């Protein structure tokens, strides 16, 4: 077993480092330039579309555009927003947060592209549900000769979910509940399995409804707590931002419990943790966006790209600034423990509970969101008859992550490797289909601009009369 883990670790170091990170970042920047920075310039418009997406409509799809975004965010807003940010700062210093911001801005173009293709090439299964994602736009967008690549994506996605979206998440919930409230981890695992099972019984519509309520609630609560800390320490924010920017381009010396970090470490861990947090380019979230009730693929794309903005630019920034302002980054702690120290220092007596409950809720929603992703990958490979057995296995494996003899490090390693292997077929498809994407985007934004110009001229005419 140790030999196998060693081989996986070596393979993971190659795939997740020198291959995947440049490919993810390069694809994001290539698409950003191809869209002429439209995905960043249209953020206000995207928020307007997101809010409008809460309304009921008669367009094709299974769930509202807003709930599709919340389903996607239920999987992305997770341990990466609390533990992942802290890990990036632990290894890369405060400058890692700057590189998280940069890769998130580029990732908005990637996420926009994924959602556009997901809606463009989606189809209905034999049960009447809308399905889509990388396996479909690889197969149908690139042609039959690329079916093998679609098959590889679906296979990697099916297995990756059981690690990164199931057992490691249930372990995070159990660990948070055990350390803060003294609840037995196995009991937490069983309760989590029951809750997830009840949600999965209702399929995508139930998942969308739960995500549409739970994700905004937990994100707003965590954001409010972090914002309160920043308001109480507002005088420290300018110096914290200055430290982040300076550390992004200058090595940081060891101080307190911080071992020091190079510029390369800040860049590497900032980019890696940013991608892990928002999943732009991984090919997971377009599976959720394919179910949205919409007749416009690019309109759903504008909503989808907000997932990256809200996940990294907003929530991860809150965590990072709190860690830096409170000095927790020099505590020697790592992961969720560092975030807990930061919040507890700022809000004594309640800070650790905010982190623990937030971590538990984030991990719970990740289990729900990833269950849908892995289920659709399984369905692509084996058909609708595989849905019920998949859901049963998914729920039964949730408590396994809480067992004391499980090697969580090995699970993370295998899951990270499979996650990286998911991304590669997806990124290849995005690059090959980029001419189609650029054409769709140009036509859409031209129509939007024409419509806004017409409304403005009409308003001016009416005002003149």
TrEMBL record:
Subcellular location: Cell inner membrane; Cell membrane
Any one Gene Ontology molecular-function term assigned to this protein's record: amino acid:sodium symporter activity
Keywords recorded for this protein, A-Z: Cell inner membrane, Cell membrane, Membrane, Symport, Transmembrane, Transmembrane helix, Transport
Membrane topology: Multi-pass membrane protein
Gene3D superfamilies, alphabetized: Amino acid/polyamine transporter I
InterPro entries referenced in this protein's UniProt entry, alphabetically: Na/Ala_symport (IPR001463)
Top-level taxonomic group: Bacteria
GO cellular component, one term: plasma membrane
Ranges annotated as spanning the membrane: 20-39, 60-91, 97-119, 148-165, 185-202, 214-233, 239-267, 303-330, 350-373, 393-414, 420-438
Protein family: Belongs to the alanine or glycine:cation symporter (AGCS) (TC 2.A.25) family.
Entries under PANTHER family matching the protein: AGSS FAMILY TRANSPORTER, SODIUM-ALANINE (PTHR30330), TRANSCRIPTIONAL REGULATOR, LRP FAMILY (PTHR30330:SF3)
NCBIfam families, alphabetized: agcS (TIGR00835)
Protein name listed in UniProt: Amino acid carrier protein
UniProt organism field: Oxalobacter paraformigenes
Organism phylogeny: Bacteria, Pseudomonadati, Pseudomonadota, Betaproteobacteria, Burkholderiales
């Amino acid at each position: 077993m140790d030999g196998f883990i060693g081989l996986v670790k070596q393979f993971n170091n190659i795939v997740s480092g020198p291959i995947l990170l440049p490919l993810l970042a390069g694809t994001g920047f290539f698409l950003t330039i191809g869209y002429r920075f439209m995905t960043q310039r249209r953020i206000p418009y995207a928020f307007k579309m997101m809010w409008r997406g809460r309304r009921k409509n008669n367009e094709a799809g299974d769930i509202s555009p807003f709930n599709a975004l919340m389903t996607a965010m239920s999987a992305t807003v997770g341990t990466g927003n609390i533990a992942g940010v802290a890990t990036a700062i632990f290894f890369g210093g405060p400058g890692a947060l700057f590189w998280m911001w940069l890769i998130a801005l580029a990732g908005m173009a990637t996420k926009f592209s994924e959602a556009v293709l997901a809606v463009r090439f989606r189809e209905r299964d034999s049960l009447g549900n809308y399905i889509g994602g990388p396996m479909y736009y690889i197969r149908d967008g690139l042609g039959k000769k690329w079916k093998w690549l679609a098959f590889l994506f679906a296979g990697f996605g099916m297995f990756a979910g059981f690690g990164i979206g199931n057992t490691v998440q249930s372990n995070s919930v159990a660990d948070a509940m055990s350390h803060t409230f003294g609840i037995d981890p196995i009991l937490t695992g069983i309760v989590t399995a029951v809750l997830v099972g009840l949600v999965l019984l209702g399929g995508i519509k139930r998942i969308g409804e739960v995500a549409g309520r739970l994700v905004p609630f937990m994100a707003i609560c965590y954001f409010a707590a972090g914002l309160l800390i920043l308001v109480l320490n507002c005088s420290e924010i300018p110096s914290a931002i200055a430290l982040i920017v300076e550390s992004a381009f200058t090595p940081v010396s060891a101080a307190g419990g911080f071992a020091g970090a190079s510029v390369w470490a800040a860049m590497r861990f900032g980019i890696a943790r940013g991608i892990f947090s928002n999943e732009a380019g991984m090919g997971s979230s377009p599976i959720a966006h394919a179910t949205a009730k919409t007749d416009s693929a690019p309109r759903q794309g504008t909503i989808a790209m907000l997932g990256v903005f809200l996940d990294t630019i907003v929530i991860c920034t809150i965590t990072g600034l709190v860690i830096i302002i409170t000095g927790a980054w020099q505590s020697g702690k790592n992961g969720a423990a560092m975030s807990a120290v930061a919040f507890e220092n700022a809000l004594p007596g309640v800070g650790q509970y905010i982190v623990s409950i937030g971590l538990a809720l984030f991990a719970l929603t990740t289990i729900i969101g990833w269950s849908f992703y892995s289920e659709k990958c399984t369905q692509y490979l084996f058909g609708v008859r595989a849905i019920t057995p998949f859901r049963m296995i998914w729920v039964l494996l949730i408590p396994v992550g809480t067992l004391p003899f499980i090697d969580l490090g090995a699970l993370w390693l295998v899951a990270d490797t499979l996650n990286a292997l998911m991304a590669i077929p997806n990124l290849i498809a995005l690059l090959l289909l980029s001419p189609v994407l650029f054409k769709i985007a140009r036509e859409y934004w031209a129509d939007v601009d024409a419509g806004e110009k017409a409304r403005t001229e009409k308003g001016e005419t009416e005002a003149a009369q």
